[in-house]
Design goal:
10 strands
Amino acid sequence: MNTAVLAVGGIRLAYGSLSVGELLAASRYAALTAGLGGVVGQLNSLVRSRAAAHRTGELLTLPTAPQGARPLPADGPGRLELRAVTVLRGGAPALRDVDLVVPGGTTMAVVGHSGAGKSLLAAVAGRLTDPDSGQVLLDGIPLDEADPAQLRREIGYAFERPALFGRTVGAAIGFGPYEPPAQAIEAAARAAGADPFVRLLPDGYATPLADAPLSGGEVQRLGLARAFAHAGRLLVLDDATSSLDSVTELHVRRALVHDVRTGSRLLIAHRVSSAARADLVAWLENGRLRAVAPHDRLWAEADYRAVFAHTDDEETQADEDTRTDQDTTRAAS
């Protein structure tokens, strides 16, 4: 701004329409304005910092969750059991007296309308949060009595919008309670449908994460690959395939069966196709478990079909978005 003022003032000074004193005054005002802009920017940074510190302080005031030391049974099949689980949010029950069993080696889809408590159930299943009453057990061991280090190794998560950590793309897939070998990282990426676009990056798996131009669907596949690379006896997929087209989702489902460590899968699902491919479906309604049965049996009920009524357009859009990503990748190659 100061440069522009001096340029215009210099022209007017040359034509005699501005005195030297007036030009000096104008330049001083411009400098003062620039200084105020810098101060305002610093004040904005201070306000954001105070807000972030307040949110961090809220986390630090949360009570410490009790930790146990009981080991999980060796080679357990991943049987997950919820007994009369109730979780309160805002003083009201978000999950109410949920009794649910996921047999070892089973894929169970959890479905329901928005706000039914699906993601909260997923959080309780892997002890991202504890129930206010009731009990959650993995292979017969209550989660609050189990060794937390072993739980981190045996329970894996993949999310709709994963946060990626690590210096490189390969390190982001390997990030977790332990670092898998390079071969396991690449195998997990293939299972998640991420290997083709990773290999097109400038340095492949060694490409700095900050320099990798990733779409939402590609980030989701890397999150899936990270979960597959650390798969234990229980794998929780919280809407982790929402940005995948139907073909890629089918590839991921087959990889879960054939290429990823055998165990139980709890799948938070919004698509009909996801529920149809699961062994069992848990149907949540207003925080309560309405039914547990195969998808084909539940499909006979109109209320169940209504759960998926709004997802057809979203699934079509996901297919179109993925085709766009694939076209862009082919053009880049």
